[in-house]
Each structure stands twice: as C-alpha cells, then as structure tokens.
C-alpha cells in the first residue's frame, strides 16, 4: 500500500514537472524580436499596423506572431483558425483587456464596458443589460427614431451634399443620443457630435502602444502633474474632462428630466429605478455611455465607406437601387429591410473590404496557455488581425476586389450581372469581434446601416471621379480617406413632394 502511494506520488510529480517544463521551455510564437531592452519601436506600428502584421506573417511563415514593445508582449492572430481557436473556443481565458495605465487610470476609463476585464463580475452584468437593451425587440421600439433621423439626414444631403460626412456623423450621434438618453440633437453644433469623434480619437491616442511611459512603468502614475516630465498626467487630466463630459452630462440630464417628469423613454430612463444603489446607477451610466462610444464612430465609418464604394461602383449601385425600386418602391422603412438581400450582401462586402475595426479591440490572455507548440504567457495582449483575415485570398479570392456577389446567392434581376461567387465565409464572423467581447450592438447596427443605405440609394445617384485611389486612415476605427462624391437627386421636387419623400410616415 505504502509502495503504491509512493509510486503514485512519483508519477504525479514527474507528470507535473513535465507539464511545467513543457510550457516554460516552449518558445514564444515567432516574430521580430527588436532591441534587447526596447523591443520593437512603436513608431513602426503608427500607420496601418494591420498590414505590418500581415507582412510579418508572410516573413515568419506563421499565422500567430509575437513581439514586444518595452516590457509588454503582444500576440497577433493573423488567420481565422487561430482567432477562432483562441478567442472563441478558449474565450474563458482570452476575454481580458490589456491594462492601459494611461487610459484606464489616468483618463479614468477603467470601468468602461470596453475596458473592464472579462473576469470582473461587472462584465457579465454589463453584457446582460446591453443585450437586453439592444436586442431584437428593443430595435423594433427604436425604429421610429431611426426613421425620423433618416429624414433629417436626407434633407441635409440634399441641401449641402458636399458636406456628406458631417451629415452622416450628425445622424449617427443623433440616433444613439436619442436611444441611449432620449436626448435630441438639434443642430450640427451640438457638443455631442464633435465629442463623439474626439472621444474615439482620444481612445486611440491614449492606448497607442509605446506612446506613454506610464504604461510600461506604472509606478509613474503617482508622479504629480506639475513634475517636469509628467506630460502624461497633464494630457490625461485634459482628456479625462472630455471623456467625463460624454458619460456624466447626458446621464445627469436624464435624471433631471425624470425628476421633472419630462423624460422620454430611453435605454437610461428604462433602467434607472428609484432607490437604486450608487453601484447600480454607475452600471447604467457606463452601459449607456458604451452605446454612444460603440455606435457613434463605427457606423459613421461603415456608412461613409458605403457611399464612396457605391460612387466608385455604379453598376453595383444601380442593381441595389433596382432591388429597392422593385421590392419596396418608396422610401424604405425598418420593416422593409428583409426584402433587400442584395443590399445586405453589399453591407457585408463593405465591411469586408473596408473593415471598421481592422484589429477589432485587443483581448488579454488571463492565464498561461499553449497553442500549436508555442507559449502564450498570461498578461499578453492578443490582437486578431481582422484585416488580414478579411483579405486572406484562401477565404476571399481576389480580396482587393469589391464584389458583393461573394455573399449573394439570390435570383432575379438584382443578381443579373453579378459573378457567381456566393458562398464565401460570412465576414460577420470577424468584423464584430470575438467570443465574450463580441460587439453587443450588432442587432442595432445592422438595421440602422441598412436603412440609411437603402434610403440614400432610393433618393440619390452617387458619382465620383473614376481614377480615385482608395486609402484608409489609421485608428481604432478606420475610415476610407474622403474623396468627392456627387449626390444627384432621383426625384426632383416637382415630381415627389418633399414631405412625402422625407417624412417617416410615407
Ligand atoms: C458598424 C458598426 C459596428 C462595428 C463594426 C462594431 C465592431 C465592434 C468590435 C470589433 C468590437 C470589439 C469586439 C472584441 O473585442 O472582440 C465591438 C465592441 C463593442 N461594441 Fe461594437 N461595433 C459596431 C457598432 C456598435 C453599436 C451600434 C453599438 C451600440 C449601440 C456597439 C457597442 C459595442 C460595445 C458596448 C462593445 C464593447 C463590448 C465589450 O468590450 O464587451 N457597437 N464592436
């Protein structure tokens, strides 16, 4: 008996040692190692880093890469299998967010939905509230808001088409401010319009790898702002004010409206209950703020890409317009969208060709792990290279060709002339992110985008110069760099009364 116990102990010890040895001795995934102390210079990641990562994938012949900036490790997942295996199948240990001392602590954004760790109990509460507030039923309730705001958008495009970006941005902000807070954006100078754009830029700057010394030496967060080298404290304090404006002002505005009995139903007013604890109210505030932060810049990027790509591809534009004319025959409404399969395929192709988030958002490994004989240490930042996946020629032949037929197998006039390439993987598996951090706004974003797309094509013909070079901006969300698009009205005033075209009742 004694001998058996000793043998069992020995076997267990050897097995444990073997396992430990295996994971400690396994190499990190391949990738550029850079300088012994500094690692990779962060300046090399300033412009379109997704292309740099894809290039490294070819150079090192591996779909999963590793590099270091100072003392922080980043793992890049350059293909769909690695992204799926780690971020979906092992979501339990890949749902963290990398700590950004600059953004989370100095700018005060730690508790935000986007930033909170997947292990924090608040994460599950946030997700539950967002899913119920953005689910199919909620979207039905918000349809009148979408339809009303489309009227304002079309009017703006008609009056000052050259400013189409400004109109699109106004529309995205107005919709989400109404949904989240019941707040009406009345004019283009509303502070929430410019702040949406600014907040998104601040998030990108504050989380840029290698930019803030405090991210690599967190002890520096205690250095006072007046200290000569503490520029990060001064900049952080300024950004904090802008970001707090976005979360606190509308929340307090809803509370004041409720107290005065003048509130209109919104995500926030539905969730705020008398006698709520401070903690519960704080959760509501961060969730509503996440609607604004999640929706405002992303939908702008997708819609602007759509407009530019339609202007560059008139034959696809006209087929989509024919589908709208044949299946609906008037200004579309939310309830009509299921009758526009070609338009949905176009949206998928816009999001594949010009992804809104080329690197989604970074996840963090919360435990040591081993993948394909490589070690992934706990605490590593894990980035899915969505751009590389969506431009992988094995998944999407001729990936740099804009071709909605990849996702359209319909028949009839709308499909005439489209190449028979349907059946390529649905880009929605990647463009919305992965696992437990996947975008909770999908059910809201898709109809909002489709409605705007359908109404724009119903109302205007879009044209651009032919020799335009499509280029992209770098940021958490990426945009096609703007070029001129001409909007020609399909229904001159004399034929269709304005109120008929632009009212949501028609
Ligand atoms: C074109 C539109 C949109 C795209 C492409 C998009 C894409 C994404 C992506 C890639 C992520 C990160 C997922 C990950 O970490 O794996 C994300 C997260 C998120 N999105 Fe969206 N999104 C869009 C619209 C929206 C809208 C309309 C809302 C809300 C109304 C929203 C709310 C959020 C929130 C709250 C998160 C954070 C989830 C978390 O960290 O747990 N998004 N989105």
From TrEMBL:
Its cofactor is heme. Gene3D superfamilies: Cytochrome P450 (1.10.630.10). CDD domains: CYP64-like. It comes from the Eukaryota. The keyword RNA-binding does not apply. Keywords: Heme, Iron, Metal-binding, Monooxygenase, Oxidoreductase. Pfam families: p450. Heme binds at residue 439. One of its GO terms (molecular function) is monooxygenase activity. Transmembrane segments: none annotated. The keyword Ribosomal protein does not apply. Pathway: Secondary metabolite biosynthesis. Belongs to the cytochrome P450 family. This is Cytochrome P450. It comes from Favolaschia claudopus.
